[in-house]
Design goal:
InterPro entries: MFS, MFS_dom, MFS_trans_sf, Sugar_transporter_CS. This is MFS transporter. It holds the Pfam family MFS_1. Its main location: membrane. It is a multi-pass membrane protein. Helices cover about 80% and strands about 0% of the residues. By secondary structure, it is an all-alpha fold. It folds into 2 domains: about 400 residues, MFS general substrate transporter like domains (Growth Hormone, Chain: A, Up-down Bundle), CATH 1.20.1250.20; about 55 residues. Helix 16 packs antiparallel against helix 17. The longest helix is centred in the N-terminal third of the chain and has 35 residues. It is globular, with a radius of gyration of 21 Å.
């Protein structure tokens, strides 16, 4: 929690990045490159789905797993990945995860059937689930809490956004050449990250006391997250009230209960239950779910609208989204200073104010909407919203957390992002399909129906973040 006194003190701090040496900058750049790699790959492969389907003869239901398998692996293993980073060692885990990512990406690029591509994407998602919390935890323990860490997190956010933006453009260009290049390009980038981490990141130091593994707890929570994400992804096709969907949710609840019982009796638990009673961390994870859930749903609708209804090429669509990424890259490095002045809670509120205005703007689309007057304002507003909300969530989630548990905190936050994206996208897809003869038809009505859900969730989060920010201000003045 950031009090008014803490906020004032942080605002008075000098730009401590001026004292960063070349090695520290290089370390931050390498760690940010791992985030850049994940974002780049996700954006590129998303654009390459249609040609993958055409070349490998995959059905529509099968090819959607090229995207969903990554989400399943990422969301399912994040909590385990975060804790393993603290137990095994962040540097070691990051090196292993990036290596596996590179191998899986290479396999996907040379695959001759859809099953191999889907399996490769799942393994890439699992790898990202271990590399993301490990990389973020290294940043959190390398840079001291306060203005310095806020600036580092802001740069980290900017790199992720830049990777996603460049991924859209690169995906459009590479897809014109051949979809396999969207899998092959990340391989040399991953190798560069491996070399950089090996040289710049110091070796892990762990006491013997930390080398105790809660295998039953790890199994139960990982199985629970895998089942939850799988059930959410499959719900639109299976039906939200079908036996399979309801059984999946019931199984998730049973596994969570089993996990809680295991953690209460284990001497060295995977996750201390009181760790999840941290309102700042849980609140940041819920905001993270709303951030990626609303944005990924918007991107899904926007891609359909521009490509299926307006006839834009993948490259044209990528260029249409590009202003958003450029603005994020420009604003994000300065977000650390804004947190020092206003605190993470007001940053998240400001972010969702911009998100809500962006989604309201996109609701104006019609059969021949002008890009500059209807779509570009949405992209610019999201470009403002991302760096404010992302940086605010990262800082709030990890503030006050002991260094030994920074990986776990990062895992909880990242789980919020991935599960939120899977859940809301499934809800939006089902809403779009309602009344459209069983499929999410490419009609203005379906786009508007989906955007009503996106905007509604954004408004709810806007109100919630405002209430929390106001309460925090009242407590600080008492």
């Amino acid at each position: 929690m950031t009090t008014s006194q803490e906020t004032k003190a942080a605002a008075q701090l000098p730009d401590e990045t001026k004292g960063w040496g070349g090695r520290l900058w290089a370390t931050l750049i390498v760690l940010c490159s791992a985030m850049f790699l994940d974002a780049l790959d996700n954006a590129m492969v998303g654009i390459a789905v249609p040609p993958i389907q055409a070349e490998l003869g995959m059905t529509t239901s099968a090819v959607q797993w090229v995207v969903s398998a990554y989400v399943l692996g990422f969301g399912g293993f994040l909590l385990l990945g975060g804790r393993m980073a603290d137990l095994v060692g962040r540097r070691k885990l990051l090196l292993i995860a990036v290596s596996v990512f590179a191998i899986a990406s290479l396999v996907g690029g040379i695959a001759d059937n859809g099953v191999t591509v889907i399996v490769a994407r799942f393994v890439m998602g699992v790898s990202a689930a271990f590399s993301a919390p490990a990389g973020l935890a290294i940043i959190m323990t390398t840079f001291p809490e306060g203005a310095v860490r806020n600036r580092a997190v802001a740069i980290y956010t900017a790199c992720g956004a830049t990777g996603f933006s460049l991924g859209l453009v690169a995906g459009g260009l590479l897809t014109e050449i051949g979809w396999r290049w969207t899998f092959l390009l990340p391989v040399p980038i991953a190798l560069a990250v491996l070399v950089g981490v090996s040289i710049l990141v110091g070796k892990d130091t762990h006491s013997d006391a930390k080398r105790s593994y809660d295998i039953p707890g790890a199994f139960s929570i990982t199985a629970a997250m895998l089942l939850l994400v799988f059930t959410i992804v499959e719900a639109p096709a299976a039906g939200w009230t079908s036996g399979r969907t309801l059984g999946g949710f019931a199984g998730f609840v049973v596994l969570v209960i089993a996990f809680v019982l295991i953690e209460r009796k284990t001497a060295q638990p995977l996750i201390r239950l009181d760790f999840l009673r941290n309102p700042a961390l849980v609140g940041a994870a819920l905001v993270a779910a709303a951030i990626l859930g609303t944005y990924m749903s918007f991107q899904f609708i926007g891609s359909l609208y521009l490509q299926a209804s307006r006839g834009w090429s993948p490259l044209e669509m990528a260029l249409g989204f590009l202003p958003c990424g450029i603005l994020i890259a420009l604003i994000a490095p300065r977000a650390g200073g804004l947190i020092g002045k206003f605190g993470p809670k007001w940053m998240m509120f400001a972010g969702f104010l911009a998100y809500t205005l962006a989604y309201l703007s996109f609701l104006r689309i019609d059969a021949d909407s002008n890009y500059y007057t209807t779509i570009l304002p949405t992209m610019l507003l999201i470009g403002v919203a991302f760096p404010l909300s992302f940086t605010g969530a990262y800082v709030q989630a990890t503030s006050g957390v002991a260094d030994a548990e920074q990986g776990l905190a990062a895992g909880v936050l990242q789980t919020g992002y991935q599960v939120g994206a899977a859940l809301l996208l499934a809800i939006v897809t089902a809403t779009m399909a309602f009344g459209q003869d069983g499929g999410a038809a490419n009609t203005l009505e379906s786009y508007h129906n989906g955007m009503y859900v996106v905007t509604g969730f954004s408004v709810l989060t806007l109100v919630a973040t405002l209430v929390v920010a106001l309460r925090s201000r009242q407590k600080a003045t008492v």
